[in-house]
Automatic annotation (TrEMBL):
Protein's name according to its UniProt entry: Aminotransferase
A Pfam family matched in the record: Aminotran_1_2
GO BP, sorted A to Z: amino acid metabolic process
Cofactor: pyridoxal 5'-phosphate
PANTHER family per UniProt: ASPARTATE AMINOTRANSFERASE
Molecular functions (GO terms): L-aspartate:2-oxoglutarate aminotransferase activity; pyridoxal phosphate binding
Catalytic activity, reaction form: L-aspartate + 2-oxoglutarate = oxaloacetate + L-glutamate
Domain Aminotransferase class I/classII large, first and last residues per copy: 34-372
Coiled coil region boundaries: none
């Protein structure tokens, strides 16, 4: 018997782009010491105070089914957060709680795309984006964002690909590039969505990690609240990656229909996890800044190292927990460079090609190891690139 075409075709019939990551994990499994600068996973764990809140809730009996769209306290906390950060009035009726940001991306596209609809996404992209779109039956269409524009999508970039498109997926602060979209960029996104009558799905899971510039949500611009679905998560902001809790903020009628989808798929998020998230959000900026500080610090370390050489280029590192490095001076693709770096120095980075054609000749470095190891690894990477120059 055959499996469905949809499940077999999630990666488009090719690699999922994580070959170097899998190779590094095999090496680690074989006992080789590898410095992993690949995955967006904090090197600190969830704060003990959050775990204590989770324990209190669970041991107090909150282990049964939670209400499917999310508890009122969690939805209210998310609504208050969005209202305070963006100035756009938001209530619990605009919020659906999901098992993490990835689930929110999947549900959001189910809400706005029918089978065969074209769904746009920006290239470079987070590795799961095209598969997520295929998973809901949409046809993924990339919007190339060029390195000479610091990987920021322009209105003309989007317009060129918008014919017949139903939705546009954007991500700022951006994974993999570390770029924070400028006001001009976000206004171009909004203009394209209005002129070509597209839904905007805005992945904002890194909104607490902004080093330069200002995070601007497309939902805040004129005419966009009624056509924007914002994806958020506790994973990056509060180091709660394993807790799997995120949300969608959208117009009320969209959330009503997403409630029906959640009833038939996830059936909600455990109440004790939601209680822990409510506690964490209630701690405010202090806890978020504590989680973000290691990446801010390592970004400065990386900038200092890269400023002392001219072989490896740095894409503007304005947000998120990554640095995108230009290694085209070596004459190698990002994939070949990453593979050789892993073999020669047991340092694992992600090839730019893992995130789309626009990032060819680049590598993404996750700032997710302690400071001294990060500094040593980046210096080794730069030295290796010098050796490889033709």
């Amino acid at each position: 018997m055959d499996l469905s075409n949809r499940i077999q075709g999630l990666t488009g019939g090719g690699s999922d782009g994580w070959d170097v990551f899998y190779k590094a994990r095999r090496m680690i499994g074989a006992g080789v010491s590898v410095t992993e600068l690949t995955q967006g996973e904090h090197d600190i764990r969830t704060d003990q105070s959050i775990l204590d809140a989770m324990y209190r809730s669970a041991s107090g009996g909150n282990t049964g089914y939670a209400t499917v769209p999310g508890t009122n306290s969690m939805r209210d906390a998310v609504a208050a957060r969005l209202t305070a950060r963006t100035g756009v009035h938001t209530t619990r009726d605009n919020v659906l709680v999901t098992p993490g940001g990835q689930s929110a991306l999947f549900a959001s596209h189910h809400a706005v795309c029918d089978e065969g609809d074209v769904a746009l996404y920006c290239d470079p992209y987070y590795a799961t984006y095209p598969g997520t779109l295929r998973g809901v039956g949409a046809i993924p269409r990339a919007v190339p964002c060029l390195p000479e524009n610091a990987f920021q999508p322009t209105f003309s970039d989007i317009a060129e690909k918008s014919a017949g498109a139903k939705s546009l997926l954007v991500n700022t602060p951006n994974n993999p590039t570390g770029v924070v979209y400028s006001r001009e960029t976000v206004e171009g996104i909004a203009r394209a969505c209005r002129e070509y009558d597209m839904w905007c799905i805005s992945d904002e899971v890194y909104d607490t990690q902004v080093w330069d510039g200002t995070h601007i949500s497309p939902r805040t611009l004129d005419g966009m609240a009624e056509r924007t679905l914002v994806v958020g998560s506790m994973s990056k902001s509060h180091a709660m990656t394993g807790s799997r809790i995120g949300w969608i903020v959208a117009p009320e009628d969209v959330v009503e229909n997403l409630f029906n989808l959640a009833t038939h798929t996830t059936y909600g998020v455990p109440g004790y996890i939601q209680d822990a998230a409510v506690f964490a959000l209630g701690e405010g900026l202090a806890l978020e800044e504590k989680v973000a500080e290691p990446f801010r610090r390592r970004r400065a370390i990386g900038q200092n190292i890269l400023a002392e050489q001219n072989v490896v280029g740095l894409v503007p590192s304005e947000g998120a927990m990554y640095m995108m490095l230009d290694v085209r001076s070596t004459g190698l693709s990002g994939e070949d460079f990453a593979d050789k770096l892993l073999d020669a120095h047991h340092i694992a980075v992600m090839p730019g090609e893992s995130f789309g054609a626009s990032a060819a000749g680049h590598v993404r470095v996750a700032m997710t190891v302690e400071d001294s190891a990060f500094e040593a690894s980046l210096k080794t990477l730069v030295g290796f690139a010098k050796e490889l120059q033709p």
